[in-house]
Every structure is written in C-alpha cells, then in structure tokens.
C-alpha cells in the first residue's frame, strides 16, 4: 500500500471536516472533477489527498467519541448484577432459580474444599 499523499492545501482544526470531505467527493464525481482526472491528474490527486486528510480527521473524531469498553464475567456478579446484566441483553431470569443456583454453587465449592482438605489430611497421615 502506498503512503498517503499530502495535499498542498493543509486542513485546519477549525474546518468542518464532514462538509469539506463531502464537497471534495462531490467535486471528484462532478463533470469538472472527472475532466480534471483526465486532463490534470496531479490536481485531481491533490484534491483526493485533501479529501482523505479530512476523512482521517473524521475517523479520529469518531474514535475519540467512543467510550471505553468494559467487561465483566457473568459468574463474578452478584445475583442482582446477574439479573441486571441479563435484562440488558433482553434475557429474563427467574430470581428464585438464580438464588437456588447460587446456593448450590456455594455448597459444591464447600464440598470440593472439604474433599481437598480431607485428601491432604490422609496424605499427611
């Protein structure tokens, strides 16, 4: 891929990049733009480079608007958090079923820990 040519007309921070980009596009597709493409390829390329500089500024402005993304593992949430996260995804959870699962998960974890401790005691004996 070739490096982008820099136009002879610098863009300015006060430019309305969306309007300028659209005007460059309009001209490039107009009869005058198409004629310049054939008869003055360097001039046409200069306008195209100017348009690309405006487009790059637009993309940078869009990227700056995006909020930082967040992620959290569903299993790490409290039951209330799980309900809220599911609701955001338009998933309906039964609160009683969710609470029962939490209780069962805690019991399973306690049983695993107890078995591990018991296994360590038997190895030590």
Q: Helix and strand string, N-terminal first?
A: HHHHH
Shape: elongated
Number of domains: 2
Chain-averaged pLDDT: 90
Main sheet specs: none
Please count the helical segments.
5
Instruction: Bin the helical content.
Output: 55-70%
Oligomer: single chain
Structural class of the helices, strands and pairings? mainly alpha
Radius of gyration: 31 Å
How many beta strands in the DSSP annotation?
A: 0
Strand content: under 5%
Structure description:
The protein is mostly helical and 125 residues long. The chain has two domains: 17-65; 74-124. It is 70% helix and 0% strand. The longest helix has 30 residues, at 95-124. It is elongated.
Kindly list the characteristics that best describe this protein.
2 domains, 125 residues, mainly alpha, 5 helices
What is the gist of this entry?
The protein is mainly α and 125 residues long.
Secondary structure: elements and pairs:
Elements lengths: L16 H13 L1 H9 L1 H25 L13 H10 L6 H30 L1
Helix pairs in contact: 1-2, 1-3, 2-3
């Amino acid at each position: 891929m070739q490096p982008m040519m820099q136009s002879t007309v610098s863009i300015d921070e006060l430019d309305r990049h969306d309007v300028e980009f659209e005007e460059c596009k309009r001209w490039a597709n107009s009869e005058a733009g198409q004629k310049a493409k054939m008869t003055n390829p360097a001039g046409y390329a200069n306008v195209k480079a100017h348009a690309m500089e405006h487009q790059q500024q637009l993309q940078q402005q869009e990227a700056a608007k995006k909020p930082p993304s967040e992620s959290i593992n569903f299993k790490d949430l409290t039951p209330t958090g799980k309900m809220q996260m599911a609701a955001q995804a338009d998933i309906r959870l039964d609160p009683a079923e969710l609470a029962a699962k939490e209780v069962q998960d805690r019991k399973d974890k306690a049983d695993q820990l107890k078995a591990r401790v018991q296994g360590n005691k038997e190895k030590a004996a």
